[in-house]
Amino acid sequence: MSEFKHQSGKPLDCLCMALKIYKQEVTLRSGEKIYKIGMSIGGGIDQDCSKSIYKDNGIYVTQVEPDSPAQKAGLKVHDKLLQVNRIDYTMITHRFFFFIQCIVNARFIQIVEP
């Protein structure tokens, strides 16, 4: 049971918002082209949440770059990522988040946040 009186695995009512964010093409000094949305994340089930401002091991937005696709779509610092491109993010590790982002070669991401 969590501090929100919610038992893991049971349904939870919350307000969620789906966002579709198109990645921005960026050319590195090396000439390599990459796609990014302009945000940083923190958290994951492998992280110690006692050292965090968040009370659980979710994946949270910790930074949004000004004028980035993430900001234009309405993503904000402290938003919790529940699902990205139909992948459940409520029980993933911090490292797995980055692994998924590397192998998913999508030009957009769909984010669901509380």
From TrEMBL:
GO terms for cellular component: adherens junction; basolateral plasma membrane; postsynaptic density; postsynaptic membrane. InterPro entries: PDZ (IPR001478), PDZ_sf (IPR036034), Synaptic_Scaffolding_LAP-MAGUK (IPR050614). This is PDZ domain-containing protein. PANTHER family: DISCS LARGE (PTHR23119), PDZ DOMAIN-CONTAINING PROTEIN (PTHR23119:SF50). Signal peptide: none annotated. It comes from Meloidogyne enterolobii. Residues 25-94 form the PDZ domain. One of its GO terms (molecular function) is protein kinase binding. GO terms for biological process: cell-cell adhesion; establishment or maintenance of epithelial cell apical/basal polarity; neurotransmitter receptor transport postsynaptic membrane to endosome; neurotransmitter receptor transport, endosome to postsynaptic membrane; receptor clustering.
